[in-house]
Specification:
Blueprint lengths: L1 E11 L2 E12 L3 E5 L6 H8 L7 E6 L2 E2 L5 H6 L2 E4 L13 H5 L1 H6 L6 H14 L15 H14 L4 E5 L7 H16 L3 E5 L3 H7 L2 E6 L2 E7 L5 H9 L17 E10 L4 E8 L3 E5 L6 H8 L8 E4 L2 E4 L3 H7 L1 E4 L3 H5 L6 H6 L3 H4 E2 L2 E2 L1 H14 L16 H10 L8 E5 L7 H16 L3 E6 L2 H7 L2 E6 L2 E7 L5 H8 L16
The structure holds adenosine-5'-triphosphate and magnesium ion (MG).
Magnesium ion binds next to helix 1.
């Protein structure tokens, strides 16, 4: 059976986001939905799951026309979704069991057995491979667990089609593998799956067919096996991807930031390293290895009382303001929570770190603010209807670009990028890399924290491998491989033995 969307049109005010999009997914297949940030992927699947209404077009299941004017109706028609911001789909103050069977709580019979419900919830969660206490509050669950709960919720309602909107962006390797196994089990049991991701290897690993959206139109539909990566990327961008300039590793010996036994409160451990002028130092670590904790502490967010040395001057960075004064800026990982103010327009989000520059005699120069924003919008190709658009209304990837963009023109000398490419498309990734290279040319120092180890081979000069809150290896980029980094970052030893977790010098 086929789920078919035909000539779907959707505008937000004057912004026509979907222009006659066609999309089909069959039962028993995994179908990739691709496109750059802002192409309309989330909008399309929100229409499919009854969260948004299209302006025109039709949706059919088999030969039957269906109306999906609410999430309820979509579920009744057999369509479930795991949204991009999975947090928003759950009740954090209810238990795991209550969330799984929320539909019964809301609509079910007035009388029910709590024990019975818990038992059923447990069965559904076991089907998705989650084994946790049914009484735990959802607010205490990890992101991957929340995803599994939402999937269980959908399965408990017997959905035939399941949409996953960028589910792997926040997951670790192991969690991603587990999710893929679950997707394949569901596919084999006849469920049709729509899968959104910016990572081509993931598409190759599990998808049967692919549809590419560009500027609100369907530009490609095909079997994955019939396409090369270049063809897919070209369909997404509408042009060939400019190759990232091969660089010779930068050689710098002037210390910029010296960190000696620096205490990281949230890890209860100390770290030691040196960052040089004009150097991109990669910090390779999987989800949970301690990257964010180190970045936050260095940016004054967790009140470490250790000293750091910047150009031979000592600093105690106990407050974010102190970090900015010392020339350190952090581009944080969690865009919605800390990266941007979602209720404020793009220009005000971007101007925040620059208020001194654009204020005169206490008056904020709105024209300068707009110019600054427009420059960043152009530099990172941020898709927004204007610089006055509220950031909360941008697509997920474009929100991430705003959170990066606001820091580009500051006087900072040390940049901490925490997983900057999470959720941004392949074209924007190239933009971010070229911006980082430019910062390095200007003799700034960059710490690049990531679990996307392959990115480090492109952008970093030197790499420190972080495992369980400790640096356990140091490599020059041109002297290591992806396999070696992966082995080290997962706690193994490239020569086959397990390392002892000893700290590198
Ligand atoms: N509620 C809304 N109001 C106004 N504009 C919106 C709204 N939701 C989405 N848009 C706009 O629609 C366009 C498409 O957004 P959408 O979220 O569908 O993109 P996407 O393909 O999912 O991108 P990403 O890869 O970044 O998640 C964007 O330009 C976005 O700003
Ligand atoms: Mg999206």
């Amino acid at each position: 059976m086929t789920l078919q969307m035909k000539r779907i049109v959707k505008s937000f005010h004057e912004n026509k986001v979907l222009k006659e999009v066609d999309f089909t997914v069959q039962k028993g297949e995994i179908h990739a939905l691709l496109g750059v940030n802002g192409a309309g992927k989330s909008t399309l699947v929100k229409i499919l799951s009854g969260q948004l209404q299209s302006d025109s077009g039709e949706i059919k299941i088999g030969e039957r026309l269906v109306s999906l004017s609410s999430p309820h109706q979509a579920i009744d028609a057999g369509i479930g979704i795991v949204v991009q911001e999975v947090d928003t789909a759950l009740f954090p103050e209810l238990t795991v069991a209550e969330n799984v069977s929320i539909h019964e709580l809301v609509q079910g019979p007035a009388f029910f057995s709590r024990r019975e419900r818990k038992k059923r919830a447990k069965e559904w969660l076991e089907r998705v491979g989650l084994n946790i206490s049914m009484d735990r509050l959802v607010s205490e669950c990890r992101l991957s667990e929340k995803q599994q709960i939402v999937i269980a919720q959908a399965l408990a309602r017997n959905v035939q089609f399941l949409i996953l909107d960028e589910p792997t962006a926040p997951l670790s390797e192991v969690e991603t593998k587990a999710l893929f196994q679950l997707m394949i089990r569901l596919k084999d049991s006849g469920v049709g799956i729509v899968f959104i991701s910016h990572r081509l290897p993931e598409i190759r690993a599990i998808c049967d067919r692919v549809t590419v959206l560009r500027e609100g139109r369907t530009v490609l539909q095909s079997e994955v096996s019939e396409l090369t990566d270049d063809q897919i990327v070209e369909a997404m961008l509408g042009k060939q991807l400019l190759a990232i300039q091969e660089k010779s590793p930068r050689q710098s010996t002037t210390p910029l930031l010296e960190v000696q036994q620096f205490y990281v409160p949230k890890l209860d451990k100390s770290v030691t390293f040196t960052l040089h002028e004009g150097e991109v130092l990669g910090i390779a670590g999987l989800v949970g290895s301690g990257k964010t904790e180190i970045a936050r502490a260095l940016a004054g967010q967790d009140k470490s009382s250790s000293l750091v040395t910047i150009r031979a001057k000592h600093w105690k960075i106990k407050h974010p303001r102190k970090a900015i004064e010392a020339g350190i800026c952090l581009i944080p990982e969690e865009r919605r929570k800390e990266g941007v103010l979602v209720d404020f327009p793009v220009d005000q989000n971007i101007s925040l770190p620059h208020l001194d520059k654009i204020t005169q005699a206490g008056w904020l120069d709105r024209r300068k603010e707009r110019q600054l924003a427009e420059k960043v919008i152009e530099q990172l190709s941020i898709r927004t209807s204007s610089s006055k658009q509220s950031v909360g209304l941008l697509s997920g990837g474009n929100q991430q670009k705003v959170s990066i963009g606001r820091w580009l023109d500051t006087d900072a000398s040390i940049y901490l990028f925490d997983e900057p490419t999470k959720g941004i498309d392949i074209g924007a990734k190239v933009d971010v890399f070229s911006i980082i290279s430019k910062l390095a040319e200007e003799k700034k120092g960059i710490l690049y924290f990531t679990s996307e180890l392959n990115e480090l081979l492109t952008i970093a000069d030197r790499i420190l491998v972080l495992y369980d809150g400790r640096f356990i290896a140091e490599k020059r980029t041109n002297e290591t491989t992806l396999e070696e980094l992966m082995t080290l970052a997962t706690g193994g030893n490239p020569d086959g033995t397990e390392h002892r977790g000893s700290e590198c010098p």
